[in-house]
Amino acid sequence: MKKNTSNFSMIVREFKQDKGATFFLFLLLALIFFIYIYAAFLNTKQVMHVDIINSYGHPGKGGHLLGTDQGGRDVLKYLVLGARNSLDIGLAVTLIVEVIGIVFGLVAGYYGGLVDNIMMRFLDFMMLLPMLMLVIVIVSIIPNYSMLDFILVVSAFLWVGTARLIRSKTLAEAHKEYVYAAVTSGSSAWKIMLTDILPNISSLIIVDLILSLTSNIGIEVGLSFLGFGLPESVPSLGLMIGLAQDPDVMIGAPWVWMPASLLILLLCVGISYVGNVIRRAFDARQRLG
Amino acid sequence: MWKIILRRVLLMIPELVLLSIVIFLIAKLMPGDPFTGMITPQTSPAQIEALRVKAGVYDPWYLQYWHWIVRMVHGDLGMSYQFKTPVGSLILSRMGNTIWLHLLTLILSYSLAIPLGLIAGRYENSRLDKGIMIYTFVAYAIPSFVFYLLGVWLFGYKLRWFPTSGSVSVDVTGTLGYILSRLDHMILPACLMAVLSVTAVVQYLRSEVIDNKNQDYVKTARAKGVPEKTIFTHHIFRNSLLPIAAFLGYSITGLLGGSIFIEQIFNYPGMGLLFMNSILNRDYSVITALVLLYGTMTLIGSLLSDIILSLVDPRVRIE
Fold it and tell me: Cα–Cα distance between B162 and B82 in angstroms, integer?
C-alpha cells in the first residue's frame, strides 16, 4: 500500500510540472463526466427516432443546438450517446485485452524456455493476421451481431500487443532475487506471478492500459466509420463521421460530422497525452519534477 | 549470409501454412459456395447437388483445404462473382494503383521523418526537439481516418487544391497528361498518410542519435578536433541511419494495411477499395484472396526487414 501512495504522489508531481497535461486531464474528466451524466438522462429510442421533416436542420434551428442529421435526429444528443458507447466499448475491450494479455504474458515470461518459445510462436502468428480485414470479414459473417459480439471479436485480435509487452517485462523480472526467494520458500508458481511479479510490473500495466484505451476507442470508431462496427441502431461516433463519405453531407452539412470528428480527436489525443505523462512519472530518467 | 536467409525462409513456411488454414476455415464460414454466381432459376436442384459433389463440398475439410491450396499455388484464385473475371487478374489490375500510392507515401514519409529525427536528436531537449516530439506524439494518437477526412474536406472541397476521388481524370490526353493527372490524384492522400506515418522513424532515429553522441568514437573525433558539424554529418548520422533501413520492410506492409481507410475516403481504386466493395457485394473469392495476400505480404515484410538488418549490421548475423 505504501508503494502505491508513492506512485500516486509521483504522478501528482509530474502533473504539477506539466501545466498542459493538467489542463488536458481536467478537460477530459469534465468531458467524460458530462457525457456520462447527460447520456444517463437520454432515452436512446427517443433520440434515434426518425423525423424526416427536420432532416439536416441548421445548428440552432428548432432548439437543436448542433442541428439535426439526415433522419432529423438531434446531433448533440446523438453525439453524447455515441461518445458514451465509444467510451464503453473502448473500456470493455481494453479490460478484456489487458486480462488476456497479462495472463498470457506472465505465463510465457515466468516459465520461459520451451513454454515461452511455443507461446511466442503463437504470438508471432497472431501478429501476422491482417486484423482490420479479418474483423470486417467476421462482422459481416455474423448474422445480426450485437455490441457484445463486436467487443469480443475486436478483443480476440488486440490482446497480442499487451501480451508481448508483459511477457518481455516478466522475463526480466523472473530472474530477480525476490522471485528466487519466493521459489525457495515454496510459493506456488501462480502465487509468485500474481502477488510478487504482477505488483512489480503494475506501473507498466497502468500505462499500457491508458494508451491502449486510446487506440481501442479509435478502432471502434474507425470500424463503425467503415460500416462494420456497431449496428445501425446503436448511436456511434463512427457512424456519424461516416456520413461525411457523401460529398453533399461533407460540404453541405458539416455540423453533422465535424463535431464527432473533433470530439474523437480530442478524446484520443487527450487520453494518450495523460497516459504519456503518467509513463514519464514512472520512468525516473524522463521525469520532469 | 545465405544460410541466414534460407533459415528464415524455412521458418516462414509453417507460418504460411497455418495462415492459409485459418483463412480457409474463415472462408468456409462465409455463406454461399463457388456456384452462387452461376445458378439461374433454370438450374435444377439436382444439377446444383451434382456440381457440389463434383467440387467436393462434402469432402472432409482437410481434403478440401488441400484442393484449395493446390489451386491457389497454381494461381487459380477463383472467379469474382461481382466482376465476372478471374480474381487473380482483378487484384493485379488494382495492385498497381495501391503500390504507386504507397511508394509515393513512403518517399514523402521518409524525407520528412529522417531530417526531423536527426534534428530532434542533435538538439536534444531544445524547443525544436520538444516541438517535433509533440508532433510525432499527436500524429500517433489521432485516429488516421479522421485526419484524412478533415484533410480532404479542407484541401479537397474547401480550398479545391486537389481532386477528391478517383485515380485519374476522365478527360486527360497524352502520356504526360495521364501521368500528371495520376500524380495530381495521389498527392493529397500520399501527403496525408506521410504526415501521420513518421512517428516510429523519428523517435527511433532521435534515440539512436542521442545514444551515439556518447560513444567512444565520437569522443575520439572530438578530441582530434573534428568540427561539431562534421561529427554529426559524417559520424553520428551515418551510424544512426543504418538501422532505419530495417524499418523499410515493415513500412511497406504497415502502409498497405492502412490502405482501406485512405482508399475508401478518396474513392481511390486500389486493393483496399476492392476489399470494401467485395465485402459489400459478398464477393467471397476476392475477399479470401485479398486477406491471404495481405497476410503473406506481412510475412514477407518482416523477412525483408530481417534480411536488410543483417545486411547493414553484421552483428545480427552472428546469432
Answer: 31
Q: How far from B54 is each of B50, B61, B72, B84, B284, CA to CA, in Å? A: 6, 15, 18, 22, 20
Residue with cell 531530417: B115
Interface list for chain B against chain A, based on CB atoms closer than 8 Å? 15, 18-19, 22, 26, 29-31, 137-138, 140-146, 149-150, 152-153, 157, 164, 257, 260-261, 264-265, 275-276, 279, 282, 287, 290-291, 294-295, 298-299
Q: Please report which helix (H) or strand (E) contains residue A208, including its range.
A: helix A202-226
For B298, which of A130, A244, A268 is closest by C-beta distance? Answer: A130
A139 touches chain B (CB under 8 A): no
Long-range contacts of B10-13 (CB under 8 A, 24+ apart): B12/B299, B12/B303
Over range A230-253, report the average pLDDT: 80
Name the DSSP letter for residue B168: S
Output the average pLDDT for chain A: 83
What value does the mean pLDDT take over residues A231-236? 80
Is A250 in Cβ contact with B141 (below 8 Å)?
Answer: no
Residue tagged 518482416 (cell numbers):
B302
How far, in Å, CA of A233 to CA of A225, rounded? 14
Q: Round to whole Å and give the CA distance between A242 and A245.
A: 6
Q: How many domains does chain B have?
A: 1
Out of A3-17, B8-22, B32-46, B243-257, give the one with best mean pLDDT.
B8-22
The answer to whether residue B57 sits within a structural domain is no
List the single range of A99-103, A189-193, A251-255, B203-207 with lowest mean pLDDT.
A251-255
ipTM over 0.85: no
The cell numbers describing A278, all together, are 503518467
- The answer to whether the CB of A228 falls within 8 A of the CB of B110 is no
B215-268 pLDDT, tens digit each: 888 888 888 888 888 888 888 888 888 777 777 777 766 656 557 888 888 888
Let me know if residue B44 belongs to a domain: no
- Does residue B166 lie within any of the structural domains? yes
| B147 within domain boundaries | yes
Residue B131's domain spans which residues? 94-281
State pLDDT tens for residues B143-185: 888 888 888 888 877 777 877 777 777 677 777 777 878 888 8
Residue A205 in grid coordinates? 500495466
d(CA B95, CA B88): 10
Indicate which CATH number applies to the domain containing B113: 1.10.3720.10
CB atoms within 10 A of CB B20: 19
pLDDT tens digits, one per residue of B100-123:
888 888 899 899 999 999 889 888
Three-state DSSP class for residue A185:
coil
Residue partners of B110: CB distance under 8 A and separation at least 6: B201
What Cα–Cα distance (Å) separates residue B68 from each residue in B62, B77, B79, B102, B196? 10, 9, 13, 31, 39
Question: Which DSSP string do the residues of B205-232 spell out, in sequence order?
Answer: HHHHHHHHHTSHHHHHHHHHT--HHHII
Contact B294 A244 (CB under 8 A): no
State the burial class of residue A121 (Cβ atoms within 10 Å of its Cβ: 0-12, 13-18, 19+). middle
